[in-house]
């Protein structure tokens, strides 16, 4: 132990004490400081009160008081969980594939498939439709799609397109026309170009040029521009009906000015009017 006297305290300015603290400390002439504690004073990171008590650093205290809160995400809609929807879809396809071709039996099985669901399994049903479409099981596609629409589910352009294709492939043109008229009256301004193309293709497959012209009239009324395949089918319909002048006017307005040809093994883009003129 060492003795710190008045003169020795005044001679230690490097301790970091202010004049006021030196004057207070000088009152304790007989105060003893352990030798092991003297070097640690040089590394002290805390402030001292008038009585020599230490206070924690304000920054350190602030860091201790800060509580990290996890990031919260807010959504305007809640995404339905798609986990297991693929297995549900395969299970549905397996169930209805083994049933007889009777509407009541199929609908009964579909109702049983959704009996224990808290909400309608729309994702699984849509996947089942895609599977049936890939397998060309058109009657099953029609049954599942009609059942969904009857439940008020799946009223989307994709479902309508799949159902129209199934009607086309199963030779059920009358039902396709009924569905198409319902779509025209219900969705009017939101009908996609894809559906117009589907109906044009359906009427072309069944050699109904008058109906193709009707579809074209609906497209013009709703200001929907036909794609290249639809333009070709409609021009062919005008030609079948002997409306050559209208066909030329139609092609002039809607046919693309460019086309692609194969020249010396390469695909080349050329102007249609120049190439056809030659």
From TrEMBL:
PANTHER family from the UniProt entry: OS01G0757700 PROTEIN (PTHR46782), OS07G0545900 PROTEIN (PTHR46782:SF2)
Name this protein carries in UniProt: PPR domain-containing protein
């Amino acid at each position: 132990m060492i003795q710190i006297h008045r003169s020795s305290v005044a001679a230690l300015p490097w301790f970091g004490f202010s004049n006021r603290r030196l004057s207070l400390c000088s009152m304790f002439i007989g105060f003893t400081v352990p030798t092991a504690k003297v070097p640690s004073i040089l590394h002290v990171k805390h402030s001292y009160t008038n009585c020599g008590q230490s206070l924690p650093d304000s920054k350190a205290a602030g860091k201790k008081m800060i509580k990290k809160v996890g990031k919260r995400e807010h959504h305007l809609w809640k995404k339905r969980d798609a986990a297991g929807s693929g297995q549900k879809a395969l299970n549905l396809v397996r169930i209805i594939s083994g049933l007889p071709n009777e509407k009541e039996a199929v609908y009964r099985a579909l109702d049983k498939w959704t009996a224990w669901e808290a909400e309608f399994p729309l994702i699984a049903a849509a996947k089942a439709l895609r599977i049936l479409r890939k397998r060309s099981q058109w009657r099953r596609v029609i049954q599942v799609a009609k059942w969904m629409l009857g439940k008020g589910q799946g009223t989307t352009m994709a479902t309508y397109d799949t159902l129209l294709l199934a009607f086309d492939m199963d030779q059920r043109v009358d039902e396709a026309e009924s569905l198409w008229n319902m779509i025209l009256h219900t969705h009017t301004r939101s009908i996609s170009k894809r559906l117009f193309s589907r109906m044009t293709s359906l009427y072309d497959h069944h050699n109904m040029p008058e109906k193709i012209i009707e579809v074209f009239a609906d497209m013009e009324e709703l200001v929907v521009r036909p794609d290249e395949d639809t333009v070709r089918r409609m021009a062919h319909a005008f030609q079948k009906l002997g409306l050559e002048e209208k066909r030329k006017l139609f092609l002039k307005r809607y046919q693309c000015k460019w086309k692609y040809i194969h020249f010396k093994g390469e695909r080349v883009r050329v102007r249609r009017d120049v190439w056809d003129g030659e």
